[in-house]
């Protein structure tokens, strides 16, 4: 095995192009488990933790946040929790403090597990993934097109994830996850909602309840059409329940050791209903605070 | 390959490291510091917790090569000579150690908590220790130990 240690982004892309089977490693919280257990013996590890600017984030010219693939969950929570509250909530549920000190959204994207906790909030906020290769340069992939199958993504063998781009929150955002414990659990299922009051719509993301993370499009359309965006009336329980049903209908879950398909569908409906209620409550409070 | 790193303030030059090896293996088998324990090798138990550049991490999930040029502090590096660190003292006094396998990881993790948060609430302690498993104590004595260490640091015990 080789251990490749690029010091710059250009070197990293060149190394990946030269040896596409090289496995990138950032926090190692997925990669090292596989190596320790002999599940994977790649010809090379490509350590990205020395590529300095991968661990930086910035406010881009268009106002969106451009967050490097190497920003850890711990830093995301501490530094971006105010602007990316849904993603920060998801980050708080990842593993343990030790895992959050190492694990990254870039690694979550690289692994592309349907249970990855970053994915629902990235979908709900309309994030884009910036990827690059030495041969073809940079391209932007909307989160909705990034996930292609169980642990498969739109990333080509010679590409690396550079960053994700997400707009700072313009309304309340929530993430909720079902698991057997309050820490260290892979999601049985999860749900994210992001209100975009300026556009009078809600974004959604369903996690761990289909071969890929996905949006609940019908639930989004329903929320855009039916919620009282202008008057901010209290959320009608019937509307919230219907939103939950539509979210559950977007799921395509399986039975596995963590839960049955029927349970997951039910739980998605509950999570969607609850997160919408929390978000709507905050949305109404905001108005009261401004009045 | 060769890895150069600083462990508990001492520069170490380690040869013959396999490229897929973990920092935990390097510390235990090559540097001769068996304090950090190997229990699960998958980040689940926290018994391998060490500081890497000042942040507690699972050493089993850090590739050895990633520690090149970095600062590592293990449980062996907490005590000042023969004097135990206050967290270690509190663990002994409170009976927070039974078989002891989980102890080094818990001590490092609790040490970090107390450095960052002066007077942690029970919730904060539980949250900080959520990634450290103990099969013996039932955690109550561990909670006692962390409370005591924090109180001593704050000068209230
Ligand atoms: C104990 C434990 C608990 C966990 N709990 C959770 C949890 O609650 N929720 C959750 O979502 N995940 C969880 N995970 C999984 C893991 O922590 C996350 O997927 C994390 O985001 C991975 O980030 P990393 O930087 O450690 O990735 P790595 O392990 O370094 O990499 C992960 C994958 O991404 C690829 N990769 C890394 N960087 C790039 C890049 N820049 N470009 C292209 N590919 C790249 C790697 O080759 C690899 O395939 C847990 C893991 C452990 C060990
Ligand atoms: S041995 Fe590293 S977490 Fe268990
Ligand atoms: S004392 Fe035995 S595992 Fe904690």
From TrEMBL, chain A:
Residues 1-171 form the FAD-binding PCMH-type domain. It comes from the Bacteria. GO terms for molecular function: FAD binding; oxidoreductase activity. Keywords: FAD, Flavoprotein, Oxidoreductase. SMART domains: CO_deh_flav_C. Residues 98-119 are annotated as: Disordered. PROSITE patterns: FAD_PCMH (PS51387). The keyword Magnesium does not apply. This is Carbon-monoxide dehydrogenase medium subunit. It comes from Sphaerisporangium rufum.
From TrEMBL, chain B:
Gene3D superfamilies: 3.10.20.30, [2Fe-2S]-binding domain (1.10.150.120). Signal peptide: none annotated. Coiled coil: none annotated. Residues 1-78 form the 2Fe-2S ferredoxin-type domain. GO terms for molecular function: 2 iron, 2 sulfur cluster binding; metal ion binding; oxidoreductase activity. Keywords: 2Fe-2S, Iron, Iron-sulfur, Metal-binding, Oxidoreductase. It comes from the Bacteria. This is Carbon-monoxide dehydrogenase small subunit.
């Amino acid at each position: 095995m080789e251990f490749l240690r690029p010091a710059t982004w250009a070197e990293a892309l060149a190394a990946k192009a030269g040896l596409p089977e090289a496995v990138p490693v950032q926090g190692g919280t997925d990669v090292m488990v596989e190596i320790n257990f002999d599940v994977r013996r790649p010809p090379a590890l490509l350590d990205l933790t020395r590529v300095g600017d991968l661990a930086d984030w910035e406010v881009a010219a268009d106002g969106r946040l451009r967050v490097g693939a190497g920003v850890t969950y711990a830093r995301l929570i501490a530094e971006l929790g105010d602007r990316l509250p849904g993603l920060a909530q998801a980050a708080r549920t990842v593993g343990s403090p030790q895992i959050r000190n190492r694990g990254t959204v870039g690694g979550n994207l690289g692994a592309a597990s349907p249970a990855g906790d970053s994915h629902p909030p990235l979908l709900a906020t309309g994030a884009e993934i910036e990827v690059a290769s030495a041969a073809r340069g940079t391209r932007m992939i909307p989160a909705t097109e990034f996930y292609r199958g169980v642990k498969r993504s739109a990333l080509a063998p010679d590409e690396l994830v550079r960053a994700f781009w997400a707009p700072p929150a313009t309304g309340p955002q929530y993430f909720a996850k079902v698991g057997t414990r309050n820490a260290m659990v892979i999601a049985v299922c999860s749900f994210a909602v992001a209100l975009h009051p300026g556009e009078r719509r809600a974004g959604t993301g369903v996690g761990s309840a289909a071969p890929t993370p996905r949006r609940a499009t019908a639930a989004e359309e329903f929320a855009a059409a039916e919620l009282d965006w202008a008057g901010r009336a209290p959320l009608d329980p019937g509307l919230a329940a219907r939103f939950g049903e539509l979210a559950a209908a977007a799921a395509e879950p399986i039975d596995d050791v963590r839960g049955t398909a029927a349970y997951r569908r039910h739980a998605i409906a509950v999570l969607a209903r609850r997160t919408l209620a929390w978000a709507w409550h905050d949305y109404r409070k905001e108005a009261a605070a401004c009045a | 390959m060769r890895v150069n790193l600083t462990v508990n303030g001492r520069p170490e030059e380690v040869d013959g490291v396999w490229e897929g090896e973990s920092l935990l293996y390097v510390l235990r088998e090559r540097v001769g510091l068996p304090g950090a324990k190997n229990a699960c090798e998958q980040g689940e138990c926290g018994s391998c917790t060490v500081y890497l550049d000042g942040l507690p991490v699972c050493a089993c999930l850090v590739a050895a090569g990633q520690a090149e040029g970095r600062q590592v502090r293990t449980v062996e590096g907490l005590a000042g000579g023969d004097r135990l660190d206050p967290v270690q003292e509190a663990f002994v006094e409170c009976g927070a150690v039974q078989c002891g396998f989980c102890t080094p990881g818990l001590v490092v993790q609790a040490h970090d908590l107390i450095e960052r948060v002066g007077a942690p609430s029970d919730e904060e302690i539980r949250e900080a220790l959520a990634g450290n498993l103990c099969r013996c104590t039932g955690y109550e004595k561990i909670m006692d130990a962390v409370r005591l260490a924090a109180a001593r640091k704050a000068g209230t015990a």
